[in-house]
Write a structure and sequence with these properties.
Blueprint (H helix, E strand, L loop, with lengths): L1 E6 L3 E8 L2 E8 L3 H9 L5 E5 L3 H7 L4 E3 L2 H15 L6 E7 L3 E7 L3 E7 L3 H12 L4 H9 L8 E2 H5 L11 E3 L14 H27 L3 E5 L7 H13 L3 E4 L6 H8 L1
Parallel strand pairs: 1-4, 4-5, 6-11, 11-12
Antiparallel strand pairs: 1-2, 2-3, 6-7, 7-8, 9-10
The structure holds adenosine-5'-triphosphate and magnesium ion.
Pfam families: Fumble
Keywords: ATP-binding, Coenzyme A biosynthesis, Cytoplasm, Kinase, Nucleotide-binding, Transferase
Protein name: Type II pantothenate kinase
Length: about 260
Amino acid sequence: MKIGIDAGGTLIKVVTEMNNERTYKKWLTTEIDQVAEWLSQLDNVDISITGGKAQYLDSLIKHNVKRSIEFDATYKGIQLFLEENDIHLNTYIFSNVGTGTSIHYATTHNQERAGGTGAGGGMIQGLGYLLTQISDYDELVQTALNGNRDKIDLKVKHIYKDDKTPISGDLTAANFGHVLQHINEDFPNSDRLAAVMGIVGETVTTVSIHAARQFKTENVVFIGSSFINNELLKNIVVDYTVLRGLNPYFIENGEFSGALGSIYC
Ligand code: ATP
Ligand code: MG
C-alpha cells in the first residue's frame, strides 16, 4: 500500500493507493498524534509526506518515509487529477487556498511560485470567529450561505450613485466599507460571514488574476480545503474570475493534490 500525506497548517490530507484503488481521508492537524499512531500500526507501506508539518509527523513515526517539496508535490497531484478528468491545459495558474494562499504558475513541465496572500481558509476561520464567536467550521460555512453583503460591502455603484461608473458598478469598492453607513442597523452573523467569504474570495481571485496576467495564461485552477462545503466562496471566486475574462477550474478532491503528488514525486 502507498500512502501520501500532506500535513498542512490546519488539516492533514491522506491518500492511500492499493490495487488501483484510491481512498481519501482528512484529519485535523491537532490530531497529528493520532495519525502517527495509525501509521505506526501499519507494515509493508510506502509512506510519502509533504507539507509544513511533514518534518514533525516524520519524527513521530518509525517508518522510513519519502519527503518531497510541497509545491512540487501539489503540482504533480494537480497534473494527475487534470489528466484523469480529461482536462488539458498547456499553462495555468494554480491557487492553493489552504490556511494561507499560495499561487503558482504551471506548464506541462513544472511549476514556479507566483505569489500568495494571507487571505485564505485561516482568515475565514479566525476573522469569522472574531465577528461571530462561531468556531465550528460547518456551522461557519452554513451560516454564511444565507448572508447578504449589501449593508457591509461598498460597491462601486454606491460611490458613483447616479453617475456613470468607469468600471462595473457591481464590483466591490471597499470590503466592509458600507458598515458605517448602516451603523444603527443589525448585522446578523450570516451577513458578517458572507462578507468574510467576500473579502477572502475576492482577494484570492485578485491576486490569482494578476498572476495570470503576468504569466500570460487564461486558466486558473483553484484547490485547497477552504472550498469544502463552502459554495459561497466557490461562487464568489468563479463569478469574479469569469468577470475578469479568465477560466476557473475546480477539480474533485483537489485539496488532496499535495498528498497524491507526494506519492509520485
Ligand atoms: P497550509 O497549506 O496553508 O499549510 P492546509 O494544507 O492545512 O494549510 P487546507 O487543508 O487546504 O490547508 O485548508 C484549510 C482550510 O480548510 C481551513 O482553514 C478551513 O477554512 C477549511 N476547512 C475545510 N474543512 C475543514 C474542517 N473540517 N475543519 C477545519 N477547517 C476546514
Ligand atoms: Mg496545504
